Amino acid sequence: MTEVKSDTITMAQNILIAFSHSGFKKTSMQDIANAAAVSRQSIYKKFGSKERCYQCVIHTYLADMYVRVFTELDNKQQQAAETLFNVFNIFIGEPMQVVTNAHGTEVFNDCLKATHASKEDWPLRFRARLADFLVSKNMVGAQRSNGVAFTLISAGKGLMLERRTKEQFDHDLRLMIDSISTEV
User: Which residues contact 103 (CB under 8 A, 6 or more apart)?
Assistant: First the structure.
């Protein structure tokens, strides 16, 4: 996967948030241009259409998110529980700023569809990397690792849909991680 420039990632996040406010159908090219802090002509030049813009923004957002998740899982400098907290904040906590908007669940659903349709196979790679991490930190045995990884990912998604504030999410995320953590 190629590294994406920081300004492109920020632009993608801002455009995704714009879509989450009005929904795909009602978001205008001017709304997209405003979110990207560029002219409408620049948006047309870069993407060609609103549909192509939406697809590119979702892919850019997801690619960046998974790169950061995988990088965090590779971090050997921090405690396992803190790594998990950071991973799930990237994976679930950050998307809360999209989901909590009027059309956020619509955008989130499109992101999920794109994730599962991606040639990068991010969901399976994430679950496998998370399972390996849990085993390497002696949090679970190898036989249970895939199931626990699946459960953590599913529970994290549930938290995002249930909690309306970042503080509530963080609190419940810590409870979720503590339930499998052997650290004192």
Answer: 19, 20, 21, 22, 23, 24, 26
- pLDDT tens for 84-115 read 999 999 999 888 888 889 999 999 999 999 99
What does the alpha-carbon distance between residue 24 and residue 103 come to, in Å, rounded to a whole number?
Answer: 8
3-state secondary structure the chain: CCCCCHHHHHHHHHHHHHHHHHHHHHCCHHHHHHHHCCCHHHHHHHHCCHHHHHHHHHHHHHHHHHHHHHHHHCCCCCCHHHHHHHHHHHHHHCCHHHHCCCCHHHHHHHHHHHHHHCCCCHHHHHHHHHHHHHHHCCCCCHHHHHHHHHHHHHHHHHHHHHCCCHHHHHHHHHHHHHCCCCCC
CB 159 within 8 A of CB 169: yes
Query: Is 106:16 a contact under the CB 8 Å cutoff?
Result: no
Q: Note the pLDDT tens digit of each residue in 160-175.
A: 878 778 899 999 999 9
